[in-house]
Amino acid sequence: MRIKVIMSDKAMSRETMDAREEMLAAALSSDAEISVDCIKKGPDELDCNTDEAFAAAEMVKESIKAEKDGFDAIVIYCFSDVGIDAIRENVRIPVIGPGETSLASASMLCNRFTVLTSESINIPRTYRRLMRNGIAREKMASVRALDIPIGELRSNPKATEEYLKAVCKKAVEEDRSDGIILGCLGMAGYGRQIEKELPLKVIDPAFVAVAYAEMCVRTGLSHITAVYPVFENNSHVEL
Q1: How far is 80 from 93, CA to CA, in rounded Å?
Q2: How many angstroms separate the CA atoms of 220 and 212, rounded?
Q3: CA-only gyration radius of the chain, Å
Q4: Which candidate, 8, 81, 3, places its Cα nearest to that of 39?
């Protein structure tokens, strides 16, 4: 089984993507192969709706290529699930969004959850998007920010851990949250220690998404044309 993970920004080095492959492989069976790549054009980081709009078209192109290259599933490596509906119109293999899957997990495991984003400027955008989701409308207590730039999340692990612990503590005390969703995939892997210190279930979308992708392939769980009709390109867009 081969799973393609597509990062929705173009600034990641090959070294960073290799590290992601090694990290995410821990969530998969030994016979599942994971390949991480980023878009070739578009934004360096996703900091706003405009970035997401330009990234989405490139995500569609990379997904079409992944299916042609023989991959069995695609994971969008972004909590915003950039371009997910359009991608599903263009490929038949399972397309997994970390946002969708982590919200579904939170629905089963939590009564009230907080979504963490990287910077405060992202809170309004994240909140508006999540309010379109019924699970978030029912159970999301808050959206909070670490206020660490995305590029620094991995470069300063100690600072990230301290900021994360402080924000999670506030979510418990002020929001009465019993769950945390790491709403930026740059936070992947940071939640284990939090669960040991606070009464929280930490949901890590990066690991949930790749594990769910493997399950979808093994069980034949994927979208259908009745819901996502095949894109015929009658509008003559560049693919």
Answers
A1: 20
A2: 12
A3: 17
A4: 8
pLDDT on residue 239: 84
CA distances from 54 to 45, 49, 79, 151 (A): 11, 9, 16, 19
Closest CA to 140 of 198, 100, 180, 81: 180
CA distance 103 to 97: 10
* Residues 168, 181 contacting (CB under 8 angstroms): no
Residue 96, pLDDT > 80, answer yes
| Residue spans of beta strands (DSSP E) within 9-147 | 33-38, 73-77, 95-96, 113-117, 140-145
Quickly tell me which residue has 């995500």 as its tokens.
Answer: 59
- Location of structure tokens 């978030």: 136
Q: CB–CB of 197/162 below 8 Å?
A: no
Q: pTM higher than 0.70 for the full model?
A: yes
Alpha-helical runs (H) found in 78-236: 84-90, 98-109, 123-130, 134-139, 157-175, 192-197, 205-219
